[in-house]
Write a structure and sequence with these properties.
The protein is of the alpha+beta class. The protein folds into four domains: 3-69, ACT domain (Alpha-Beta Plaits), CATH 3.30.70.260; 100-167, Ubiquitin-like (UB roll) (Roll), CATH 3.10.20.310; 176-231, no CATH class; 234-296, Dodecin subunit-like. It has six helices and 19 strands. A five-stranded antiparallel sheet has the order 13-11-17-19-18, covered by helices on one side. Strands 2-3-1-4 form a four-stranded antiparallel sheet. The chain has a three-stranded mixed sheet with strand order 6-9-8, with helices on one face. The two termini are 81 Å apart.
Length: 298
């Protein structure tokens, strides 16, 4: 059973009670506070009838509910902030991931169309929800699908998705004064870039003179600026030397001379192999292969 407690205010409250009973309002309890104030508990379904009877003669104020309707009102009051908070969190979560605009910088019409095709294939387009996994997948697709892209950043600024590719340059277009240039030929095993755009990655094999890090940098809004590249790298290099010596010369001495002639620091040597190439009556010419570590610090 559902009930409601109503505070009635006015004169001649006994007349009000008689009228309520006369019109079939179920009254369960009457609590007279004073001459002008009385609390009456009635059946909840009779609420509108009680308000109509007391209109224009007595003021009324609902104090509370009982029974099932009371429980419902309490649960509604308690759950409303939780529901609203959950709705707000969900809305904020999805609004942050919603893409309303896509901006592709530093690209001509053909390049832009190709990038948009990759995005479309990944299900990324305007008015769609995207996540970090989708963006990483697109980044990998751009690297593998476009040989001319050396570096690409994908950022979200509000609801705008900004894609900033940097395309490989011809040797003539690279500002080598602002770039990191390979001083040796070898395989890159470590690369740390503080400033600039890497044109290679760990595991790549480079030749002496190749540009490793370009000074070009893509800003958050997609603008490309030129500045001095700052980076450190390590690479494994292999150099060869031919040493001719007496037949009785120890191989260790041959290797030591080859390392010295190549200008390699002994501490940087990883391995060395020696192979006889030409042997005469008194001398032997050896071919020495030296594998060593070359690095450039900041």
């Amino acid at each position: 059973m559902s009930t409601v407690d109503i505070l009635f205010e006015g004169l001649n409250l006994n007349l009000l009670i008689e009228r309520l009973k006369k019109h079939g309002v179920n009254i369960y309890h009457v609590n007279k506070l004073d001459q002008k104030h009385t609390v009456i508990r009635i059946k909840y379904k009779d609420l509108s009838k009680a308000f109509a009877i007391s209109q224009n003669m007595w003021y009324n104020t609902i104090l509370g509910y009982g029974g099932i309707i009371g429980l419902y009102k309490k649960l509604k009051k308690a759950l409303l902030p939780i529901v609203l908070g959950a709705v707000f969190m969900v809305a904020a979560f999805f609004s942050d991931r919603l893409v309303l605009d896509i901006k592709i910088t530093n690209s001509n019409k053909a390049q832009t169309a190709q990038i948009l095709k990759v995005l479309d294939g990944a299900g990324i387009k305007k008015y769609k929800i995207v996540n970090v996994k989708d963006l990483k997948s697109v980044q990998e697709s751009l690297y593998t699908g476009f040989n001319q892209i050396s570096f690409v950043t994908i950022k979200k600024s509000g609801n705008r998705l900004i894609i900033s590719p940097i395309y490989k340059k011809s040797p003539q277009s690279v500002d080598k004064n602002k770039s990191i240039i390979a001083q040796k030929s070898g395989k890159i095993i470590k690369l740390v870039v503080v400033s600039g755009t890497p044109l290679i990655k760990v595991g790549d094999t480079v030749s002496m003179g190749d540009v490793l890090v370009d000074g070009a940098v893509a800003l958050a809004d997609g603008t490309i600026i030129q500045q001095d590249a700052i980076a450190s790298y390590q690479m494994v290099c292999t150099a060869y030397s031919e040493i001719t010596c007496d037949n009785d010369t120890l191989k260790e001495s041959v290797i030591a001379k080859a390392i010295f002639d190549l200008g390699v620091e002994e501490d940087a040597v990883l391995s060395a192999t020696i192979t006889p190439a030409i042997k005469s009556k008194n001398t032997t010419t050896y071919r020495v292969s030296v594998t060593y570590l070359h690095f450039k610090e900041f």
